[in-house]
Amino acid sequence: MEKYIDETKQGEAIALAERPENGKKLFLESYGCQMNFSDSEIVASILNDQGYNTTKVLEEADLILLNTCAIRDKAEQTVRMRLSQFKTLKKEKPSLTVGVLGCMAERLKTKFLEEEQLVDLVVGPDAYRDLPNLLKETDDGRDAINVILSKEETYADINPVRLGGNGVTSFVTITRGCDNMCTFCVVPFTRGRERSRDPHSIIEECKNLAENGYKEIMLLGQNVDSYLWFGGGPKKDFKKASEMQQSTAISFSQLLEMVAIAVPNLRIRFSTSNPHDMTEDVFHMMAKYKNICNYCHLPVQSGSDVILEKMNRQHTRAEYLHLINRAKEIVPGISFSQDLIIGFCGETEEDHQLTLSLMREVGFDYGYMFSYSERPGTPAHKKFEDDISAEEKQRRLAEVIALQGELSRKRMEGYVGRNHEVLIEGISKKNKNQWKGRISENAMCVFDMQPGQKLGDFVQVYVHGNTQGTLLGETV
Ligand code: SAH
Ligand code: F3S
């Protein structure tokens, strides 16, 4: 599970409004991070123009697509399991096409076609424009593959069809790929070079969302803080750009300001930030514009300098803490969440204790914690030994999760006894008579529905209690 993609949405098939002229049926499931879910909206948009309506009924499908994740071994196992469930379907309906999209497609390439006999189509994250051609090949009975990574592709001109969302919050992709090369991470290999999307098309999309009733956008990228627009092309070519291009380049904090001004009635969030690229001016923008939420997801991975160095995170524990403390000064009350990798190569008990103490020092609202999973071909796989036993990883992970639970509860308690602005995002899962929505600091809040309130309203809620992860309130 990754940030903000509800566990229950993992592997959920998407459903679009029907186009009566479309005769074929697409079953599209997404796994992994927000970027995959956002990409699926692009895929659906492309295929919608190619005669496909979506279906949530597998048996009806002419085309099954899985948008896959390769970040950890377990994510890949989930996809393999899912694929095996399509065997009988394919036997009964030989014309059925099964395709694999996304990071696992990119990582395994033709191996997928060799290993999984029922897969007909393999498409990497930068090749979705080629889907219509690839589908012509599969229609002719041939396997089709395109895993070419691009330095330019940002799908800027494709208007994504918003999938199965709540009509209130939406993703807007601003960068693709990653140039950071953290040693444990497969993303630079599956999503290619980092590139930024034209700010004008970003603003256009945000305005369009506002006009269509959306109330919150999440600016998306593997590493949003390294956003840099100077007229197209990968960031590493910035030095080669003309003087004019360099002097008019747009940074992430400038983009954030442009968006905040362009859609003043929309809440703005962003993810993921990288401590190495994050700068204080982003927090100054947060303080300056009320519609930029007081929340930052800032993965740290480890609290030990030895491990951070081996991970090639390019910052120290002290630098991370300094950034957090500056942010807390600039934006009083700001909340943070983390990503942590437990049991990385050579992690000692002392390193583990440093992770625990860093967590306490920051006081994260929330966290995403995983045991290290070795990924073939990554620098860590080549250079280091995955030498922490599964049992030891599990023990340390349990400690980290337990501590995060305590910290979350403490942070939630800090929101009690005050009014907060909440955006109504949906109906509470536990109680049909309650709304759910988040405060600016991203904590989820539930409260009784009042007459006249509707989805997408901003309401003032008095928070009177909390659980470990949720605020309990009533509208004022
Ligand atoms: N761009 C983001 C990370 C994207 S991957 C960043 O800068 O941090 C999302 C999270 O998955 C990472 O933050 C990391 O905590 C986790 N992750 C990545 N590779 C992993 C691996 N090999 N094993 C376990 N967790 C991993
Ligand atoms: Fe992965 Fe590090 Fe990039 S975690 S996505 S290589 S910032």
TrEMBL record:
Residues 164-410 form the Radical SAM core domain. Monomer. It comes from the Bacteria. It is found in: Cytoplasm. Its main location: cytoplasm. Its cofactor is [4Fe-4S] cluster. Pfam families: Radical_SAM, TRAM, UPF0004. Residues 24-140 form the MTTase N-terminal domain. Catalyzes the methylthiolation of N6-(dimethylallyl)adenosine (i(6)A), leading to the formation of 2-methylthio-N6-(dimethylallyl)adenosine (ms(2)i(6)A) at position 37 in tRNAs that read codons beginning with uridine. Keywords: 4Fe-4S, Cytoplasm, Iron, Iron-sulfur, Metal-binding, S-adenosyl-L-methionine, Transferase, tRNA processing. [4Fe-4S] cluster 1 binds at C33, C69, C103. InterPro entries: Elp3/MiaA/NifB-like_rSAM, Methylthiotransferase, Methylthiotransferase_CS, Methylthiotransferase_N, Methylthiotransferase_N_sf, MiaB_methiolase, rSAM, rSAM_horseshoe. Binds 2 [4Fe-4S] clusters. One cluster is coordinated with 3 cysteines and an exchangeable S-adenosyl-L-methionine. GO terms for cellular component: cytosol. PROSITE patterns: MTTASE_N (PS51449), MTTASE_RADICAL (PS01278), RADICAL_SAM (PS51918), TRAM (PS50926). GO terms for molecular function: 4 iron, 4 sulfur cluster binding; metal ion binding; tRNA-2-methylthio-N(6)-dimethylallyladenosine(37) synthase activity. The keyword Iron applies. [4Fe-4S] cluster 2 binds at C178, C182, C185. Gene3D superfamilies: Methylthiotransferase, N-terminal domain (3.40.50.12160), tm_1862 like domain (3.80.30.20). Belongs to the methylthiotransferase family. MiaB subfamily. Residues 413-476 form the TRAM domain. This is tRNA-2-methylthio-N(6)-dimethylallyladenosine synthase. It catalyses: N(6)-dimethylallyladenosine(37) in tRNA + (sulfur carrier)-SH + AH2 + 2 S-adenosyl-L-methionine = 2-methylsulfanyl-N(6)-dimethylallyladenosine(37) in tRNA + (sulfur carrier)-H + 5'-deoxyadenosine + L-methionine + A + S-adenosyl-L-homocysteine + 2 H(+). Its EC number is 2.8.4.3.
